[in-house]
Amino acid sequence: MLKKKDMILICALLCVAVAGIIIVQLMQRQSGAMVTVTVGGKTYGTYSLNIPQIIEVEDDMGYNRIVIEDGYVYMEEADCPDQYCVKHAKIHYSHETIICLPHELVVEISGGENMDVDVVTQ
Predict the structure, then answer these.
(1) CB atoms within 10 A of CB 24
(2) Is the pLDDT of residue 77 over 50?
(3) Does the pLDDT at position 30 exceed 70?
């Protein structure tokens, strides 16, 4: 039969285990992943993948709205004719890119976690 001190010990160990899991999760989120936006071969800006924000790029080539949230980046809106960049899946691994060819815009992640596979096809 469990005594009062046994129950206290079990509760304390569970609390330590839960705190450890939370700390590990937070540390993984604090990666140094950066999102680099390039337009026409020139760097438009570099942004942290861990800070939620909306980046609007508008020039004579066209308009793009890039969203960074929950450790992912994606193209929310663009005025290009084919909309491939908008249909592209959210990215978060290092060296993944989203490209809007008509606007000569590239969104690339660097310094983040690496993907376990070499290529993904859809």
Answers:
(1) 10
(2) yes
(3) no
